[in-house]
Amino acid sequence: MSPSFTTQPPSCKYALLSFPTPSILLVTLNRPKSLNCINIEGHVELDAVWKWLDDEPSLQVGVVTGTGRAFCAGADLKEWDNQQKSNQPRPMPPSGFGGLSRRNGKKPVIAAVNGLAFGGGCEIIINCDMVLAAHNALFALPEVKRGVAAIAGALPRLVRTVGRPRAMEMALTGRTLSAAEVREWGLINAVCGEGEDVVRKAVEMAQAIAENSPDSVIVSREGVKMGWEGVGAEEGSRLLAEGWYARLQQGENMREGVRAFVEKRKPRWAPSKL
User: Fold this and answer.
1) Rounded Cα distance, 243 and 245, in Å
2) Has 75 been annotated as catalytic?
3) What is the phi/psi pair of residue 62, to 5°?
4) Integer Cα distance of 11 and 91 in angstroms
5) Which of 23, 33, 224, 239 has the fewest CB atoms within 10 Å of its CB?
6) How far is C-alpha 92 from the chain's CA centre?
7) What are the angstrom distances between the C-alpha of 71 and each of 105, 114, 180, 218?
8) Cβ 144 vs Cβ 122: under 8 Å
9) Please, what is the angle between helix 154-162 and helix 214-228, to 10°?
10) Catalytic residue check, 233
């Protein structure tokens, strides 16, 4: 049975959209011959997809992965070289690489890293809300080896997640890290065992989120983001209470969650109106 949407999903040339459940959007980067490198047109497409996720009431969580042996190997360097030769600009949406590396958004996105996550692909996962990796996934910010820099949002975010010494190691050496190593660093949530399907595991995690109040998920995510993005603990608490939590109190899902607990039944969540 196909999900029913209030608005139709954007058309995509370089990614596949599917729906493992009616509340979960799975985005599969689909340029396997190019290791899922993303070109300018692809960035625009993906920016529209993640905006649609936030705007579509029936969807609660997004999952992003790649086709073939790569998650995403970064920018399309052939396109980049051609643009440099003709002095063309390289526009990118405000949401950053793949529409994710600088995304703010309302709803969580989980990365299911099935293989190489290099350059911009690594910048994507650094700003995703949760990250699961296949046992053989590899991570790197190799921009320094190409005479460029990772300016799509990863560097200031990376230091908050793994600390200055490790962020410097990734950014200045450009070396490749294993899934086990980045898990030890705290950059990802978990590494799947050999033979385990990383996409299936990510969808299971997404489903665990989708079973909760969509309003509460949005507000809780916002609170965590405030701390991660440098707002002080007390200021973040005040902003959350006066802004997002006030809106949460006005919605029907808070009343439904409390009522369901009292009546000893499973909550019947309404689509979020936040």
Assistant:
1) 6
2) yes
3) -110, 150
4) 20
5) 33
6) 17
7) 22, 5, 16, 26
8) no
9) 90
10) no
Torsion of CA 162, 165, 167, 168, to 10 degrees: 180
Side-chain-side CA neighbours of residue 170 (13 Å): 29
**For 127-184, what is each residue's pLDDT tens digit?**
999 999 999 999 999 999 988 888 888 899 999 999 999 999 999 999 999 999 999 9
Please name the residue that has the structure tokens 């309404």: 270
DSSP 3-state of 129: coil
Distance, in Å, from the CA atom of 162 to the CA atom of 118, rounded to the nearest integer, reads 17
pLDDT per position as a tens digit, 212-266: 999 999 999 999 998 887 777 677 667 777 787 778 878 888 788 778 878 888 8
Q: Would the pLDDT of 83 be above 80?
A: no
Nearest Cα neighbor of 71 from 110, 33, 113 is 113
Catalytic residue status for 153:
no
Asked whether 120 and 75 are in contact (CB, 8 A), the reply is: yes
Is residue 69 exposed (0-12), middle (13-18) or buried (19+ Cβ within 10 Å)? middle
Burial class of residue 225, CB neighbours in 10 A (0-12, 13-18, 19+): middle
The question of whether 120 is a catalytic residue gets the answer yes
In a 13 Å sphere around the CA of 160, the CA atoms on its Cβ side amount to: 15
- The single residue of 120, 121, 153, 251 carrying the catalytic annotation is 120
